[in-house]
Amino acid sequence: MEQDIAMRAAIIAVIAGTTATVPVVQAQDIRHGRRLALEVCAICHAVLADQTRSPVAEAPSFETVAVTPGMTAMALNVWLTAQSHPTMPNIILSRTDVQDVSAYILSLAE
């Protein structure tokens, strides 16, 4: 619970400090984002719909992230492109990959 609050606070702080705009993500990007999530993120996170338990207990499921109040594509894009995350390995994704993973995560809220 404390980590969820810390994650939300970090996301909000990063968003407040940026003026970057994020292009609209196309629906077809969701499949690519899902593949990336399975390849890159699933080692720590539960990345599939209805998967509630992450391999790393402290890592929130993507579904939990998706339903976080106020979660947006911009928030996810900023979080995934920030230089350092004390609770995550430093994974480097292209801008398109970040947008695709963000689109996939948000699709889990639907």
Jot down its keywords.
5 helices; Cytochrome Bc1 Complex, Chain D, domain 2; Cyt_c-like_dom_sf; globular; 110 residues; mainly alpha
Order of helices and strands: HHHHH
Low-confidence stretches: 17-27
The helix-and-strand class reads mainly alpha
Quantity of strands, as a count:
0
- Largest sheet: number of strands, sense, barrel closure: none
How does this model look, in words?
It is a single chain. With 110 residues, the chain is mostly helical. The protein has one domain: Orthogonal Bundle (Cytochrome Bc1 Complex, Chain D, domain 2), CATH 1.10.760. It has helices at residues 2-16, 29-41, 62-66, 73-81, 95-107. The longest helix has 15 residues, at 2-16. The chain starts with a helix and ends with a helix. The relative contact order is 0.22. Residues 17-27 have low confidence and may be disordered.
Short description:
The protein has 110 residues and is an all-alpha fold. Helix content is 50%, strand content 0%. This is Cytochrome c.
Write the layout of secondary structure elements.
Layout: H1 2-16, H2 29-41, H3 62-66, H4 73-81, H5 95-107
